[in-house]
Amino acid sequence: MTTLTVLGDPTAGAATTSVEADLAAGRALVAVADLPAAIGWTLKPEGLCRGDVCVPVRDRTALGAPEAGTVDLLAVAAALGRPALLDEASATLAIGAPSDLRRQALAGRQAPPVQLPDLDGNLRSISDLHDDKAVVVAFSTWCGCAYDLPGWQALRDELADDGLDVVAVALDEDPEAVRPFAEGLDIPVLVDREHVLSELYAISNVPTVVWIDEQDRIARPNGVAFGTDTFRDFTGVDSEPHKDAIREWVRSGSVDVEVDAEDAVGDLSEDELQARLRFRIGAEFRRRGDADGAERNFAAAVELAPHDWTVRRAAMPLRGMNPFGDEFFDMAQEWEDAGRPYHGLPASEPTDGEGSSMSGAWRPRG
After folding, report:
1. Residue at 366 is within a domain
2. Domain that holds residue 44
3. Which residues of the chain have a pLDDT value below 50?
4. Are residues 91 and 108 both part of a single domain?
5. What pLDDT does residue 260 have?
6. What is the model's pLDDT at position 262?
7. pTM for the full model?
8. Do 308 and 350 share a domain, yes or no?
9. How many domains does the chain have?
């Protein structure tokens, strides 16, 4: 038996637990009695249960050998609809967010529940941070878009009386690295070191902006947008068309695009999901001071999703690389050569003479 470290479902707090397990043939067998301590779920006659929620399991033998008192945590995660990855070399298992929440966001436009700490460590729910229409801005300190926050603050101030809230979410490891960018602002700034927002909304780059209405429905899915024109010469994107579209939405309820959210954003591939789990394991190793384990998992994550900036570029500062240096420009060129893959709508462009919106893809220049 081996002591297995389990990085839990990030939507349930991402608790890190330990359990004795038998690791063999790509499985992580644990005692049924240890299941609640390992992942917070209990195997009952009616299925896998946590609190008053139960997920039926038609074929219990698919979980391993529950009749013999053991279950495979990977099989349990699959039965619960959560991606999982076992790193046997380090006896570490990472479990992702429920896939159905992401699919409901993509296909059903239902904003998934996201609870994240603010800069002081207080847990805040995005849905509780807005009573009116809201713009959720995903950014990071490894992106120049961190300098855009004053622009989003100014837009909120302009439209507050019309009914707009702005919530900024940093896909960052260290709240203290984010804090200087939030100085002087009163829009909520949350920190997502487990990349929950990235997984639930299928975000693959920042800045990505999502519009959420008063009923917690996604009015406009993932899209490239900037809060200022600070880096317009590099990105080729003017910030005003998107902000004008927000103004129109807030004041009249009109959305500037008609899209099928699922087709526009595209679900995460299996490799992209596995890359996010590798990233989480790498980040956990880095927190423990295990540089070799961290690098091995970060490198594996990048290999799985080389064009996902929330994986590859986000890992750069954690790997001792400069996210604004040569490694970034090499990555950006590879991304450009691959057709600029992105989960979401391209950047908004000015309307044409008849008032219809045109879109162009964000592309780094120079």
Report:
1. no
2. 2-96
3. 351-366
4. no
5. 66
6. 64
7. 0.92
8. no
9. 3
